[in-house]
Amino acid sequence: MAASAPVLILGGGLMGLAIAHQLARRGLAVTVLSRRRSEAAGFVAAGMLAPHAEGLSGDLLKLGQRSLELVPAWVSQVEADSGLACGLRPSGIVVPFRSDAERDAYPTARSGLVLERGELEREVSGIGNAWTTGLLFEQDGQIDNRRQLMRALERACTCTGVQFEEGAEVQELHHQAEQLNAVTLRRADGDQQTLECTEAVLCSGAWSAELMPQLPVFPVKGQMLSLQAPRHALRRVVFGPGTYLVPREDGLVVVGATSERDAGFSEGLTPEGQKQLQAGIASLLPEAGGWPPMERWWGFRPCTPDGGPLLGRSPLDGVWLACGHHRNGVLLAALTAQLLAEVITKESPSCTDAALLGAFSWSRFAEEDQSSVRQP
Ligand code: GLY
Questions:
Q1: What is the pTM of this model?
Q2: What pLDDT score was predicted for residue 368?
Q3: Is the pLDDT of residue 259 over 60?
Q4: Which residues form the pocket of ligand 1, taking CB atoms under 6 Å from any ligand atom?
Q5: pLDDT computed for residue 4 by the predictor
Q6: In the chain, which segments carry CATH 3.50.50.60?
Q7: Per-residue pLDDT at 288 exceeds 60
Q8: Topology of 88-142+218-303 in CATH?
Q9: Domain 7-83+146-217+306-373 carries which CATH code?
Q10: Which of 140, 221, 239, 301 to mutate to test the pocket of ligand 1 (most atoms within 8 A of CB)?
Q11: What are the residues facing 260 on neighbouring strands?
Q12: Which atom of ligand 1 is the closest one to the Cα of 331?
């Protein structure tokens, strides 16, 4: 790569910003090409840092736990570079259950503190009667991604020299002998241009397969809403089946989320989706049904057949992958940015990082019949 050729970041969402920031901190020239900021999952998600509450297992749990460890230092770095707070809250997360058997069968049960009904009521005042027990994951938490983290990361990027092009839709990757040599993009003013480049990071979220169709990334739509609660009405995140409540410092409660695998990229809220969230609220915390609604929105999780991300090498030399984070993008951003910065700058990753890059390589799907991989 010529010294001045920027690394192109194909996608201006959370992954793109986090990677751009780490690369710029390491002295690389970086340009972020972003189609529409508003569609980024980083602006949609609830911001849970929840490898245990999500009940992850296997390598995905290891990936999540490793990223969770990195989050405080990563956030401090973003805050120092941007001068803006990110809204990290070590609030802990309570997962309620209807029976002890359900609780004990939870994949991460051994990492949580068992709550009997009385303790559950103390942790989540007003929790619905159906919930007889729970697990408290004190090590899990949340960050205010929509209002704080994304803005702080954007600022950290500009302060470290990252260039941005908004409204730029990358339409094609060009290569010679399996090595990336250019991208074609359409600018906001409609102009089409081909840019020479030899290094790019594909982090276009749910749209990643549009540029590289062999990647098994597909959208899983999520509908969300927020409520304004009295300031300290809820201390912990409450993570129920199909619905969760994430209380921010100022009393805003983010409520998620539907998980619609058959919706494709269909835009908009649906009565069924909103009813599902209302039913979840009524079951988890009946009094929250009376809190004023603030906003409703939707977005598209970038999912893969095994729910794990695609990290590192791609089928094309010079194109690096950071996509497919499904339900765990906010949690995994810190580690994703570190891993990608390591591989792009050819730093030697630690043994743990190297093993994780191996486990989440796109090539785990390369042998499969692509017609059979879109399974849960
Ligand atoms: N991480 C929660 C969700 O994707 O709904």
A1: 0.95
A2: 59
A3: yes
A4: 46, 48, 222, 256-257, 301, 327
A5: 62
A6: 7-83+146-217+306-373
A7: yes
A8: D-Amino Acid Oxidase; Chain A, domain 2 (3.30.9)
A9: 3.50.50.60
A10: 301
A11: 221
A12: 1
